[in-house]
Design a protein that fits this description.
Elements (H helix, E strand, L loop, with lengths): L7 H12 L3 E6 L4 E16 L2 E11 H5 L3 E5 L5 E2 L4 E7 L6 E3 L4 E5 L1 H10 L2 E2 L12 H5 L6 E8 L9 E11 L2 E5 L10 E7 L5 E9 L6 E6 H11 L15 E6 L4
Antiparallel strand pairs: 1-2, 1-4, 2-3, 3-8, 4-6, 5-9, 6-16, 7-8, 10-11, 10-13, 11-12, 12-15, 13-14, 14-15
């Protein structure tokens, strides 16, 4: 593993401060399998005089998303205003709600259904997003070399009792013949989680970059689907800039596990 940079702790603080509410752990319900982490991504389409035009998605690894026909999402109190009254959200037709980005191992879901659900329940999402400013561009990915550099993964491990606590996992990324690889531990439940690096700038400062997301792998080397390729695939997938929203009549949402005192 590479030597940790001088701004190691500051990088972890920046990840938690700016993107801590971006992640959403899920698993296949009823069987408690296919644990993974999804995250909110805000794709910038264009900037006009009136403001920015964006699309919002959940993004994760394709394999666990497509294997979960009914999914259980773990909610945290800081993800909603007012706070969600339940700590679990079950979603039927979960696998059908995702679209696969060909050749990347990545699945995306427009978030219209999630916002419709909270509107019916009387609360709204208060999440962070991986935005255009932090998501890696082609030049950021090209700057990675064969020599591993420190990297950080923000995901949700699986505890002994099934709890899905958020954690920052320290590892490394490097370029290989077949793309970028995460080297190091990938805890159960952290597949699909965003991977970050800190790019040094003047002095002791740094720029936080989300390289992409971690995919299933083996022997401590896991592919990273990089954001330059994700952006390109999204443009091909929806050339008109209009992501198809889920058909609300074909999906039911409900909560379980009410919080004490609510």
């Amino acid at each position: 593993m590479p030597e940790l940079p001088v701004h190691h702790h500051a990088t972890i603080d920046a990840i938690v401060t700016h993107t801590g509410r971006a992640t959403l752990p899920f698993q296949r319900a009823q069987r408690a399998e296919h644990h993974a982490t999804a995250f909110w991504f805000n794709e910038l389409l264009e900037t006009t005089d009136e403001g920015e035009v964006v699309r919002q998605f959940l993004v994760t690894a394709d394999d666990p998303a497509r294997r979960s026909d009914i999914a259980e999402l773990t909610l945290r109190t800081d993800l909603g205003t007012p706070a969600p009254t339940a700590d679990k959200l079950l979603m039927t037709g979960f696998a059908e709600g995702w679209s696969t980005l060909d050749g990347l191992g990545v699945a995306v879901m427009p978030t219209g259904g999630l916002h419709a659900y909270t509107e019916r329940k009387g609360w709204s999402w208060t999440v962070d997003e991986i935005t255009d400013g932090i998501a890696a561009r082609a030049e950021d990915v090209a700057a990675l070399g064969e020599e591993p550099v420190p990297a950080y993964l923000l995901g949700h491990d699986v505890g002994a009792r099934g709890e899905r606590e958020q954690a920052v996992v320290v590892g490394a990324v490097a370029r290989a013949e077949d793309g970028v690889r995460w080297t190091g531990q990938l805890p159960a439940g952290c597949v699909g989680a965003p991977v970050f690096t800190a790019v040094p700038v003047e002095g002791d400062s740094f720029r936080l970059v989300c390289v992409g997301l971690a995919l299933p792998g083996a022997r401590g080397r896991h592919p990273v689907a990089t954001f330059d390729r994700i952006r390109a695939a999204l443009r091909t997938w929806a050339p008109d800039g209009d992501a198809p929203l889920p058909e609300q009549g074909k999906r039911r949402w409900w909560s379980r596990g009410r919080r004490p005192g609510r």
